[in-house]
């Protein structure tokens, strides 16, 4: 699969609410995760469906924007607003990075 095909299928899983299936199907056993630790160290509960932008595919990379209303256990209700960037090699995601724009979570 090329990058466009991986990106299309990966995001379709997310839009269908099958996040875990997307990760199992497309992440390499050695995917590099470069994400902000503050968010993943908190208890998070999704309160509304995610809003996922259209994909942008450039070479071996694809990116998108995700907005989701969530409740963070130690902060309260907030809007998660992220840009996601992925690198694809051999039909698998080998690198991911999330850029978070959730000011409330960053400042607390």
TrEMBL record:
Superkingdom of origin: Bacteria
Residue stretches making up the SnoaL-like domain: 40-99
Cited Pfam families: SnoaL_5
Name of the protein: SnoaL-like domain-containing protein
Provenance organism: Pedobacter cryoconitis
Taxonomic lineage of the native organism: Bacteria, Pseudomonadati, Bacteroidota, Sphingobacteriia, Sphingobacteriales
